[in-house]
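Tokenised fold entry reproduced for absentees:

. . .
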Amino acid sequence: MDYIPDTSVIVDGRFFEFIRNKIDSRVIFTEAMLSEVEHQANEGMSIGFAALEELKRIRIMADEGKISLEITGKRPGEWQIEKARVGEIDDLIRNVAAEYDAILVTGDNVQREIAIIKGIRVQFLESKDSMNRNIEEFFDDMTISAHIKSGSKTKLKKGYPGQIKVEVVGKEITEAEAEAIANNIIKRARGDHESFIEMDNLGATVVQLRQFRIVIARQPFASSLEITAVRPIKTTTIEDYSLDGEILDQVLSGSSGILVAGSPGAGKSTFVQALANLLNEKNLIVKTMERPRDLQVNKEITQYTALDGSMEKTGDLLLLVRNDYTIFDEMRVTSDFKVFSDLRLAGVGMIGVVHATRPIDAIHRFIGRIELGLIPQVIDTVLYVSKGDISSILKVSYVVKVPSGMTQDDLSRPVIVITEHPSNEPKYEIYTFGDQVVVVPVTQEQDPAMSEESKNRVKDEISKFLGTENISVKMKGRSRVQVNVPEPMMARLIGRKGASISELERKLGVRIDVEANEQERDDKIDIIPVIKNRIIYLDTGKKNSSVNIYVDDIIILQAISSNKGIVRIKIDSGAGSAIQKAIKSGKSIKCSYP
């Protein structure tokens, strides 16, 4: 009897088990099938390597005289290999089966039906698990993840978030053993209707094998074959978390923009799963966006991945689904944050999962990716997960005010205020400072009033930081001081994006308002700017001199004037843009000589 297998029964070992007892049968390998396997292996796909191992086992049977083996048919063109998913390779295999009047052996339902329609004899093989070593062997009830690497001993992580320990077990895994484990994973995933291969690229494969999320890395992506399998060991409910009733009511009310943040392994996914299941139990329509799909949620919740490789397309589709909440698991790249924002602004409730070292870092991820003023409309709550529980909750609001640390009323601007729940205590402020967006910690005032000793400590620290004694410190109430420094040193004291002054405030435990020395304030000269050919010309009145340029008494530039006393600034530069805006809004532009 002649048998012609297609790729579907080669990769998971079904054909080998089928033919091993059919002594003296003839097996025909088609060039189409071999070319597809070769292409997959050349692309670094685990499917291709698994198939090659099975083909070698069948060749050994032929060499031992148990079966005869023939290779025939036309080698497909490149376009046919690229179109394998739409049936081009299957068609070539069917044609050989018809030509030889052989039995086509397949595990593909579509292949079987088309062959029957064409009058080709078919043997359909149901899928079954391989007898090779299974990934489950590395797991017990407390194992979270297994890390298998050729040439190394296996490492197992055990415990719960915040209480994890690593165990090194067994002997070194050989490359052949690691390859066998990887191939078995691929075979089982292809034959199990509850499993799937999420991604199979050059050197990297992501598999969801029932409850296991598995990453297989090999050359050229990795230096050697490595398998990482992760499995949730604890199913939680929302009652297991320190989530107060106000936040819970807000979530259940419908439309919210929530970020679930934490470091890797902190328990974010476990919490999100519990939250998703609660929303589903409350009859809210919930969908997920995952890449890969690995959340263990109620089967009533549909889990979406990247449509045609694009989360943007998935987001467009979700707008048609009219769900109440979308859970976006593991937002990483800029396009993910934009999709989250677009869906939220369209009125969809959104729960996004992000990696973050601190709660504020979750919000920081959106800065520069969407308009600053949109952030409070997109995000209203941050739930920070640490050691398996909610350790911090931040609320986001938008007000117009003078930022903390500034005193002049004319510096009022839109400010995003981040408060801690439930105390409602301000923790951070986000606003624009010049052309920069700054995230400034809000240091709470202390009681009692700052002592003279503390005032001297502030002066000493800032004098040491600036390298000058030419500063003065005044108390301005409880734990707040005004520091006057030489004007050229103001920018250095504040630092890029307010980093230097924020660090000093944290270190000293006081709020610091920075102003120029009193004697320097009246030395500024008004300038009438001239714009020509996208260049701003500022006549400072002093040749070849260092000069400070101000907009409404805020220094924005230090420069050297020309031999005609002119400072030239390109409009496209940061300072040029600020001056152009100042001109349009009628603000004063001045200069001084340090």
User: Anything to note?
Assistant: The CA atoms of residues 262 and 356 lie 5 Å apart. The radius of gyration is 33 Å.
